[in-house]
Amino acid sequence: MKHWIQAARLRTLPLSVSGILVGSLYALANPTNTVLTPTQVFSWTVFGLAIVTTLGFQVLSNFANDYGDGIKGTDNEDRIGPMRAIQSGVISPAAMKRAMIITSVLTLFSAIALIYFAFKDDNLLYSLFFLALGLVAIGSAVRYTVGNSAYGYKGFGDVFVFVFFGLVSTLGVNFLHSKQLDLQLLLPASAIGLLSVGVLNLNNMRDEASDRKSGKNTLVVKMGGAKAKKYHFFLISTAMILVLLFAFNYNGVGFRIDQYAFLVAYFPLMSHLRTVYYCPEPRALDPQLKKLAISTFLLSIILAAVLIF
User: Fold this and answer.
1) Does the structure show a pLDDT above 50 at 37?
2) Quick count: other Cβ atoms within 10 Å of Cβ 272?
3) In this structure, are residues 199 and 289 in contact, taking their beta carbons and an 8 Å threshold?
4) How confident is the prediction for the chain on average, in pLDDT?
5) At 204, is the secondary structure helix, strand, or coil?
6) Is the predicted pLDDT of residue 18 greater than 60, yes or no?
7) Residue 19 near residue 191, CB atoms below 8 Å
8) Which end of the chain is more exposed for a tag (fewer CB within 10 A), N or C?
9) Dist CA 157 CA 168 (whole Å)
């Protein structure tokens, strides 16, 4: 059990639910649905199932990453981060593959339950769309590192993370509550997506040398470490600006000091950027992964709280 918990990489789980928190509590803060009849659009059942489903996708992605990089030899003695399960031999590739299948099935069941409670017997087209989206998410989580055409080995991981951790997570869960697309949420959704990409970019900067040696052509490998630092600065700083714009324009009320409590989370983010900029070697970036993930989660919690108070 200890090894399976380690393979699930618990430190990545808070980051995965950041968009769920903001998208759901935005629905709670905006209780009327202007498309259908006015009603309370927030559902605790939908919120809970969305959390469970998202965690399932994340654990599946972590298992698949361990499996794909493990069987391809990408996780080797040159890798800087914590030793992976298959790399260390504590979990066999066959056992990890079974775990991926079980996690996929359980996550799909959770997604189906989420879709049912969100739409019930209405909106068949919406139900089919979200079911297809769930299947794509499962496939994307697996194909990141598994298979000959794994897109994580071609530098497309950043796009996947931005779309699913940011846009789909935030806008998607809000739609499940409200049955409408609120473009105002595009700002925080994009911000969470960019911060999540920042975590991936940081991971890839840390592993640049080993990834290059093993043929894993991440975006960092393609652009080089120096440009990757500039890219990282762009990701984090743009996300911070987008959240500020969202707070300023929320409900058209303009400046209100209580809407800016999330600025507390900007201090560790700015400290993080300074550390990355002056980082002398990739190995020193490893502690920053946890710091950035927790900072993103903290920002999401405070922003979500600001929405409802």
Assistant:
1) no
2) 18
3) yes
4) 88
5) helix
6) yes
7) no
8) N
9) 15
Q: Which of 57, 72, 52, 239 is nearest to 152 (CA)?
A: 72
The alpha carbon torsion through 284, 93, 131, 175 (nearest 10 deg) reads -20
Q: What digits encode the pLDDT tens for the residues 168-214?
A: 999 999 999 999 898 899 999 999 999 999 999 999 998 888 888 88
Tokens representing 39 are: 């009603």
Q: Is 81 exposed, middle or buried (0-12, 13-18, 19+ CB in 10 A)?
A: middle
Per-residue pLDDT tens over the stretch 202-254: 999 988 888 888 888 899 999 998 899 999 999 999 999 999 999 887 755 44
Closest CA to 17 of 76, 58, 71: 58
Confidence category of residue 79, pLDDT binned at 50, 70, 90: low
Q: What share of the chain is helix, strand, coil (3-state, %, to 5)?
A: 80, 0, 20
CA distance linking residue 301 with residue 265, whole number of Å:
10
Q: Is pLDDT above 90 for 309? A: no
Q: How many residues does the chain have?
A: 309
Integer Cα distance of 255 and 189 in angstroms: 21
77 burial via Cβ count (<10 Å: 0-12, 13-18, 19+)? exposed
Closest of 5, 18, 110, 98 to residue 59, by C-alpha: 5
Amino acid at 294: I
CA distance 146 to 78: 20
Q: Which H or E element spans position 275?
A: helix 266-277
Rounded CA Rg of the chain:
19
